[in-house]
Structures are given as structure tokens and as C-alpha cells.
Design goal:
- The structure is a single chain.
- This protein is mostly helical.
- The protein has two helices and no strands.
- Keywords: Membrane, Transmembrane, Transmembrane helix.
Length: 45
């Protein structure tokens, strides 16, 4: 049970907050985010 809780904390909550922030961005910021996310080094940051 505790393991499921940690999985939720580590993976699901940050993903939820990132999607929520993305939906609040305007179109220019969304495009900039997409461009930065396509860079391989962005996944390490």
C-alpha cells in the first residue's frame, strides 16, 4: 500500500501539475514548451 502511495507522489502528481500548467499557458508559451521538450537534453533537466 505504501509503495502505491510513493508511486503516486513520484510520478502522477508531477505529471498532473505539469499538464495543468501547460493548459494555462497561452499559445506562444505552449509552442516554446514543445520546442524545448523536443530537445534531448531537456529530459535531463
Amino acid at each position: 500500500m505504501i509503495q502505491i502511495f510513493f508511486v503516486i507522489l513520484i510520478w502522477i502528481l508531477p505529471t498532473f501539475f505539469m499538464i495543468n500548467a501547460y493548459l494555462k499557458m497561452d499559445e506562444e508559451e505552449k509552442q516554446r514548451f514543445k520546442d524545448e521538450f523536443k530537445q534531448p537534453l531537456a529530459l535531463l533537466g
